[in-house]
Design brief:
Order of helices and strands: HHHHHEEHEHEEHEEEHEHH
Structural class: alpha+beta
Number of helices: 11
Bound molecules: 3,4-dihydroxyphenylalanine
Strand content: 15-25%
Shape: elongated
Radius of gyration: 37 Å
Largest sheet: 7 strands, mixed
Amino acid sequence: MKNKLEQLKDEILKRLNEIKDSSALRDLEVKYLGRKGELTNILRSLADLSIEEKKVVGRISNEIKQELMLRFNEVKAIIEGKESDKGFIDVTLPATKIKNGHLNPITLLQNELEDLFTSMGFMILDGPELESDFYCFEALNIPKTHPARDMQDTFYIDKRNKNGELDMVMRTHTSPVQVRAMQKYGAPFRGIVPGRAFRCEATDAVHEHTFVQMEGLMVGENISITNLIAVMKELLNGVFGKEMEVRVRPGYFPFVEPGFELDIRCTICGGPGCPSCKHSGWLEILPAGMVHPKVLEYGGIDSKKYTGFAFGLGLTRLAMMKYGIGDIRNFNGGDLRFLEQF
Ligand code: DAH
């Protein structure tokens, strides 16, 4: 019994030395000295001993209890001292700086472009990222069997309609919102649609399965290619903060006729040619075109009366050019060393 008590004492003292805060101390006190504590239990069991033994063991256990209580109080005083030190506020010390978050460079660019376009009377629209086959392809003049479907590697959602067809996709571009917008607002109309698009791409420095685009659409009477080029120039001058030289080439997209690729003078070499522009002196930056009459009709707009232009800006790509970002994976990589530069 005596040994057991000594052992318990050593154990408690050892634990006391390791205590760091008052709640751990309280727990320890309850565990050993509380009403149902281990030491209390031993003291209670003295009742079963002979009178002689009771005398000896009783004395020792009281001594041990006294000693432990003393030590508990000492530790308590030390800890409370420390804890109140922590609570002390020296108002004369310089404040710790609050860490500010950073906007993603794509968001920065998007905000800039939203300002620019709203100043030209465009509205800003959203659309669903999980889109129907109809809006993503069909209504954009890309029928089911058309080879143009192969231009975009699509994530189809594993859910079939009544006819057993897969008819929901992660939108491969922001263009579906063109038809949604025309159906909702009619003509005349001006709007942009910044948002994410998804393609089944193998990831490398310039390809990602998720990227950001900004669709633009303007529909009205007598809208022509001249309007398209004027607005595109306004957009590019705004992004790069200087007058940009552009050229227009034919490009095929089923939802526009005619379709274009709008290029800018290479921002790296300025014209003579370099690896970034594949030695052509031009950077392909903006696919665009005059809205196909069929697409206008899908949007519920009279294609005899109205015309329109559309463009599909790759915001992710543009942000890479504007800020000189070499690897697309940085945008969603979550590395603060990257984000803190903006
Ligand atoms: N949606 C096309 C793509 O992601 C880009 C595009 C091309 C959009 C021409 C347009 C356009 O509005 O007129 O590949």
